[in-house]
Amino acid sequence: xxxxKAVRDRLKTGGDREVVQTYPYRSACPSTVWAELxxxxxxxxxxxxxTNYFLWTQVPACSATLRQKAADGCRVRFxxxxxxxxxxxxREVIEDVALTVSTRIRMSLEELAKxxxxxxxxxxxSAAEDAMNHVSLSVFRFDGQALITPHLARLVGxxxxxxxxxxxxxxxxxxxxxxxxxxxxSRSVPLQAPVxxx
Length: 198
Known about the structure:
It contains eight helices and eight strands, in the order H-E-H-E-H-H-E-H-H-E-H-E-E-E-H-E.
């Protein structure tokens, strides 16, 4: 009430304070943002995208960086969709693109197989009962920051919007999305079988 409306319109208050940036497309988020967030994390990296494959095309030296993060004591987790799951097959019909969902997952699995000797890097599939919730919302967490992509209708991930948030307090956007990802992780299935081949 003390500030003029013009000032209030330009200052972030409440939940808005956690929003760092928004992008109309995930692909519009610069690769430098991804690289800086991964480099800046020291405790916990959680990649809860359904496919996650684009990390290796967007982040330079992604595997080497993840290996170093793990060596420095950072926990690194990947939550993927099951490439043979019913929701994956359904999503492939919906998207109707040459680079299918299962292929994109297998691309991630191929890269992650090269890091299998690093025990701090955990890889799991989301549980079958959670697959629909997983495929519709990707959460990528870097300690107290996150990049979030709600997947729109028939669009592939890079065509869906992205929001960059930073934790500012309890119960905000960061916590809400982080809790969603942790809930999916809590019921996820560790990979037991050899990595599926494309």
